[in-house]
Amino acid sequence: MADALKQVAFIGIGKMGLPMSVLVAKAGYTVTAFDQSAARISEARAQGIGSAASPAEAVSGKAAVITSLPDDAALRGALLGSAGLIAAMAPGAVLIETSTVSVEASAEVAAAAQARGISYLRSPVSGNASIVHTGALTCFVSGPKDAFDGVKQLFTAFTRAQTYLGPAEEARYAKLSVNLMIAVSAAMMAESLALARKGGIAWQDILKVLDDSAVASPMVKYKTAPLRTRDFESTFSCKQMAKDLDLILGAGHAVGVPLQLAAQVRETYGALVAQGEGDTDFIATVKHLERLSGLGEPKP
């Protein structure tokens, strides 16, 4: 049985999934991966990850299956229905789902998993593609507590910390709540920086002011570093943030919480996407406010 518990399937090996699967393999697990992209499969093989010809083959007989998928449509398409992963998984297996998706889609997966006798752990990770390989991701988990306890060692292979939050969709709300604060923080930083520049403060000076101030959260420091060199290469894109804000607003509407800041920031990201900045890092809010304020590139 111990050997069986070391057999893991990994479905979705993109920017997040591939480095996570490599960490799992390095921790001594035998990983069988599947992705719709042949290029990603080749990259996984090059890093020592096994591959399967189909999702069903990947999950067959595995005690644990980890998924990393881009959105609700991919989640439903991969997991649900007669050709989905859940139908191919062995009853008694554990499904560890790490994506950022809606509460509604997650609840559909929960119902399908329960009908099949599969333990479903909603396990969205917090962090981005630039830090995954270091094992610095954190994770929110909800679902059957006994299942979580049984695979805790597997979680420690690809995340630094795990917070167990409850038996149902609590982890989904946690991830959306955190991403709401990240999105609003990016909008807040953009306004602060534009105001400071208009007030005559040099670019590097205002970044130092923020870093040394009471508002210097890990999020602020994480973004002042690339802003020093005006590096807007995406760790998490404007397009992705717009998608997450749609999920956040949907969740707020469903439970009766007015999310006024989230709604405003969603329109900021909508504008950035419309202006061709969809694949730029989400801190491109800074460029957006500079344009609105008539500011050009700052002096180095």
Task: Describe what this molecule looks like in 3D.
By secondary structure, this protein is of the alpha/beta class. Helix content is 53%, strand content 12%. The chain is built from 15 helices and 9 strands. It has helices at 2-5, 17-26, 38-46, 55-59, 72-79, 85-88, 103-116, 145-150, 152-158, 170-198, 203-211, 218-228, 238-255, 260-277, 285-292, and strands at 7-11, 30-34, 50-51, 64-67, 94-97, 119-122, 125-126, 138-142, 161-166. The strands form 2 sheets. It has a 6-stranded parallel sheet, sandwiched between helices. The mean pLDDT is 95.
Short description:
The chain has 300 residues and is of the alpha/beta class. 53% of the residues lie in helices and 12% in strands.
Strand proportion, as a percent range, falls in 5-15%
Number of helices: 15
Percent helix range: 40-55%
Q: What is the makeup of the main sheet?
A: 6 strands, parallel
- End-to-end gap: 60 Å
Shape: elongated
Strand order of the largest sheet: 3-2-1-4-5-6
What is the CA-based Rg, rounded? 21 Å
Q: Specify the structural class.
A: alpha/beta
Taking all residues together, what is the mean pLDDT? 95
Low-confidence stretches: none
Total number of beta strands: 9
The sequence of SSEs as H and E is HEHEHEHEHHEHEEEHHEHHHHHH
SSE layout and pairing:
Layout lengths: L1 H4 L1 E5 L5 H10 L3 E5 L3 H9 L3 E2 L3 H5 L4 E4 L4 H8 L5 H4 L5 E4 L5 H14 L2 E4 L2 E2 L11 E5 L2 H6 L1 H7 L2 E6 L3 H29 L4 H9 L6 H11 L9 H18 L4 H18 L7 H8 L8
Parallel strand pairs: 1-2, 1-4, 2-3, 4-5, 5-6, 8-9
Antiparallel strand pairs: 7-8
Helix pairs in contact: 5-7, 10-13, 10-14, 10-15, 11-12, 13-14
